[in-house]
Amino acid sequence: MADKYGPIFTIRVGGRKNLIVSNSDMARECFTVNDKVFAARPKMTAFEILGYNYAIFTFTTYGACWRNLRKMAILEVLSHHKIEMNSHVVLSEVKTAMKDSYNNSNKKSMVVTEMDKWFGEISLNVLFRLVVGKRFTGYSEENERIRKAFRSFVDFAASFMIGDAIPWLRWLDLDGGEKAMKKTAKELDGYVQTWLDEHRRSRNHGAERDYMDALISNIDQGFDTYDVDTLIKASFLTLILAGTDTPVVTSTWALSLLLNNRRALSKVVNELDSKIGTKRTVVETDLKNLIYLQAVVKETLRLYPPLVLGVPHEATEDCVVGGYYIPAGTQLWTNIWKIQRDSTLYLDPLEFRPERFLTTHKDIDLKSQHFELIPFGAGRRMCPGKSFGLQMVQLTLANVLHGFDIVTVDGKPVDMAESVGLSNAKANPLKVILTPRLSAEAYA
Ligand code: HEM
């Protein structure tokens, strides 16, 4: 549609007007001069039912409540200081996954792995350990139920509901989505309430304090229409919802791109061997020296941003974008996927060329100041988990590429089909063979 109608157009879905911006100039106009106007989020059934009536701050409208909850998440989990402090958690989860694969490979000399699941396990355990001091070890029926409920939560958050487009049809719940969402919301609330009660009984104030402990200390009274428990539970779910899938999707695409571009893969592995050697695994302080790996991650986020259309914004006042009048109430979608594949900004935009970020585009960073590369969105609602997400992706990728020789199971190129939805996951699982390549002590 962007090719047909250009870099700015509107479509009506039921009663709602949607603005889609598909080039960097239009995006810049939305998130600089009009940033405050577009700082709100639209009302959506999923955000209401699963998000404790918009208390999950990804969905909270712009204002004091959103500001306070976001500030707390940054202070307690997402600031540079906290990310550095907690890097051992990411590292220990990566090492556990590597050790498991190494031990399994000892029995067969190589191990077949679904990498989406491998990355997913690391991400889920890191988030849960930081946020609620819990990790999922091995198989248990309860663990599987919890995982399933969280999976549905993420999937529902990105689903299309007829009642959102045509509000007067909502009460009929024609697709049954609302009923299913309520069931998931109730189940999740049960788990989160249990963890909250447990934390209240055995409060941790010391170095081991997790996000739930911090929330209990910081939130001692309700705000807006929300009571204390709702604010705490919603803040917990905000990080799980926003932070679990995005790093997994990015790591999976990065590995897929590298497997289809063996020259780039060799360059990454050579860089890792020359900077780290073969006797130890990669640690946080190595990342700044892995220049080519950083370029690979940037190029992956350019070609396969996990949120292709960002998260929707809503105009709270009338405004003008690209010379067009945009009435209050219009929903804004940023076509990140299209912006980052623009041939006027990138030579051969569909090609995977990490080198461009070391040469022609070396000044373009991920701080959302350059609108030609905005995988984390831009403006006041841009992703607060950017640095944490990048740390997870870089540490995980660096270690798996350094620790194992990797080939596809069938020896064929990776199928790059994308799934349909807000979150741009691969359509099919990435199955590979991992063969350890470091000395045994590195996996200990
Ligand atoms: C590669 C990893 C990630 C990518 C590409 C990504 C991308 C994005 C994007 C595009 C948005 C929407 C921004 C907008 O509305 O304009 C967003 C919002 C958000 N992200 Fe991320 N994200 C990533 C990782 C994370 C992580 C690890 C966390 C936290 C643990 C996180 C927390 C959030 C939150 C809370 C919001 C909502 C912000 C608000 O509404 O104020 N993200 N992210």
TrEMBL record:
<dbReference type="InterPro" id="IPR036396">
    <property type="entry name" value="Cyt_P450_sf"/>
</dbReference>
<dbReference type="InterPro" id="IPR017972">
    <property type="entry name" value="Cyt_P450_CS"/>
</dbReference>
<keyword id="KW-0472">Membrane</keyword>
<keyword id="KW-0349">Heme</keyword>
<keyword id="KW-0812">Transmembrane</keyword>
<comment type="similarity">
    <text>Belongs to the cytochrome P450 family.</text>
</comment>
<dbReference type="InterPro" id="IPR002401">
    <property type="entry name" value="Cyt_P450_E_grp-I"/>
</dbReference>
<dbReference type="InterPro" id="IPR001128">
    <property type="entry name" value="Cyt_P450"/>
</dbReference>
<protein>
    <recommendedName>
        <fullName>Cytochrome P450</fullName>
    </recommendedName>
</protein>
<keyword id="KW-0408">Iron</keyword>
<keyword id="KW-0503">Monooxygenase</keyword>
<dbReference type="Pfam" id="PF00067">
    <property type="entry name" value="p450"/>
</dbReference>
<keyword id="KW-0560">Oxidoreductase</keyword>
<keyword id="KW-1133">Transmembrane helix</keyword>
<dbReference type="InterPro" id="IPR050651">
    <property type="entry name" value="Plant_Cytochrome_P450_Monoox"/>
</dbReference>
<keyword id="KW-0479">Metal-binding</keyword>
